[in-house]
Amino acid sequence: MTLKQRYDEALRYFSEVMPEPHTELHFDTPFQLLVAVILSAQCTDKRVNMITPALFEAYPTAGDMAKATPEEILPYIASVSYPNNKAKSLAGMARMLHDEFNDQVPDSMDQLLKIPGVGRKTANVILSVVFGKAAMAVDTHVFRVAERIGLTTGSTSPLATEQTLMKHIPENLVGKAHHWLILHGRYTCKARKPECGTCGLAPACRYYQKNQHEVR
Question: Is the pTM of this model over 0.85?
Answer without folding.
Answer: yes
